[in-house]
Design brief:
Blueprint: E1 6-13, H1 20-36, E2 41-43, H2 71-83, E3 86-96, E4 99-108, E5 112-118, E6 124-125, E7 128-129, E8 143-145, E9 150-153, H3 162-169, E10 175-179, E11 183-184, H4 186-211, E12 214-218, E13 221-225, E14 232-236, E15 240-242, E16 248-251, E17 258-265, H5 268-275
Parallel strand pairs: 1-2, 2-3, 9-10, 10-12
Antiparallel strand pairs: 1-17, 3-4, 4-5, 6-7, 8-9, 11-14, 12-15, 13-14, 15-16
Helix pairs in contact: 1-2, 3-4
């Protein structure tokens, strides 16, 4: 069996306001605080530099985008080098005039900016109008090597797709990391809220089990009004870490900011995969149909 390999992970669950520089400054400060507590890997929520602007379709919000690599990756790379840590950050990427992505970047203590993942699955639902802003990712599913682990980085809506988790795990990911911005429509919360949250968490715990790896989901918290003035989203927080057997090892509060820290034993992954040999028993000869939109005769 593999020997223990320890990794201290921190999840920064934060509220996001209207001041981009304040959000960035608080994220940097929280990252510093997490490192002071022993974190080697720090993960931030989806699009933390601003409020979740995708609640409405407004061209004025494109000014929030920046190149990746760019100012934010430079700021976090400098901090990572100073503190000896790795950071996963989620950014609104300006790729070219009129071309934008929802992008996660990884910065490392030794090599600085390691690379990026562009969100592959883009939602278009009430108050989640991401298709107006983001082009689907074209870099494929990616894994990033740091000193202690192999990180698979995905983003929010990706977390509902077993194909995304599987293809990332098959590249050797030991952690699946999901920067996230998800919550309740307040007018629906009483009727659907518990079921919506449970489904979200359950889907990701299933990814941990099916792929024999850890899952790290980092959400924002707090109420953010729709820029149109009608309604808004109550982000449900509850960032969590799931073990390869699906146990929730750590879960954040609903409505408070928090820095959640946990030591993971990556050496346990092999034990879980030997006990539950899902990768061994995959019938790769029988899965051609997975590339079809739907298995109808037409």
């Amino acid at each position: 069996m593999s020997q223990a390999r320890r990794l201290q992970v921190a999840l920064v669950q934060m509220r996001c306001g209207t001041d981009v520089q304040d959000n960035l400054g608080r994220a940097l400060a929280a990252t510093r605080e997490a490192a002071a507590g022993g974190a080697e890997l720090v993960c931030l929520p989806e699009l933390f530099r601003s409020r979740y602007f995708c609640q409405s379709e407004d061209a004025a919000h494109f000014v929030l985008a920046e190149p990746v690599p760019g100012p934010s990756t430079e700021a976090f790379a400098a901090l990572a080098a100073e503190l000896g840590i790795t950071v996963v950050i989620s950014l609104f990427e300006r790729r070219a005039p009129g071309l934008f992505h929802n992008t996660a970047a990884v910065v490392d203590q030794r090599r600085g900016y390691l690379g990026k993942y562009r969100k592959m699955h883009i939602p278009d639902d009430p108050r989640y109008y991401e298709k107006y802003y983001f082009t689907p990712g074209d870099l494929g599913f990616r894994v990033f090597d740091i000193a202690a682990a192999r990180l698979g980085v995905l983003v929010c809506w990706d977390q509902w797709y077993p194909e995304a988790a599987r293809l990332t795990a098959l590249q050797g990911a030991e952690l699946l990391i999901y920067p996230t911005a998800i919550g309740w429509h307040p007018e629906e919360k009483a009727r659907y809220g518990e079921r919506q949250h449970d489904a979200w968490e359950l889907a990701q715990r299933a990814h941990a089990v099916a792929n024999g790896c850890y899952v790290v989901a980092i959400n924002r918290t707090g109420f953010e009004p729709d820029p149109s003035g009608e309604g808004g989203i109550e982000f449900w927080g509850q960032s969590f870490v799931a073990a390869p057997d699906g146990r929730v090892l750590l879960r954040g509060p609903v409505d408070q900011e928090a820095i959640l820290q946990l030591e993971l034993d990556l050496g346990e992954i092999e034990s879980f995969r030997i006990g539950w040999p899902f990768l061994r028993d995959r019938r790769i000869d029988a899965y051609a149909g997975i590339t079809r939109r739907f298995a109808d005769e037409d």
